[in-house]
Amino acid sequence: MSHTPEDLQYTKEHEWVATTAAPLRMRMGITDFAQSALGDIVYVQLPDVGAVVEAGKVCGEVESTKSVSEIFAPISGTVVAVNTALTSAPETLNSDPYKEGWIAEIEVAQAPTDLLTAAEYVQLTA
Question: What is the pTM for the complete model shown?
């Protein structure tokens, strides 16, 4: 059974979103459910800092020993930071998808209102 932190928001495409200390700056990554389904992750293509991303559109890629999967932006905005540590240690997405395995921080114009709660996401993946 996958771990689903209550304090995060989720998408149907298995990404998570967390608020940060900076207003309207949100951190995103892939869920424990997603990393488990992918298997051993060997490569991550991060979005570019400065890129404008649109919710539901591809913003990166994760390659595992099983397959290649697209990463979808969970929110619309501008990428202001990426987790460059994943370049040399992509397996961090397997071992710690919600903390050290974050993918990017996105600055948004307003807080998103269309993401899933943890309970809704758990129902989706059940």
Answer: 0.95
Tell me the C-alpha distance between 106 and 29, whole Å.
11
What is the percent of the chain where pLDDT is above 90? Answer: 94
The whole-number average pLDDT for the span 47-54 is 98
What is d(CA 108, CA 39) in angstroms, rounded to the nearest whole number?
Answer: 31
Domain limits of the chain?
Answer: 9-109
Q: Would you say domain 9-109 falls under CATH 3.40.50.150?
A: no
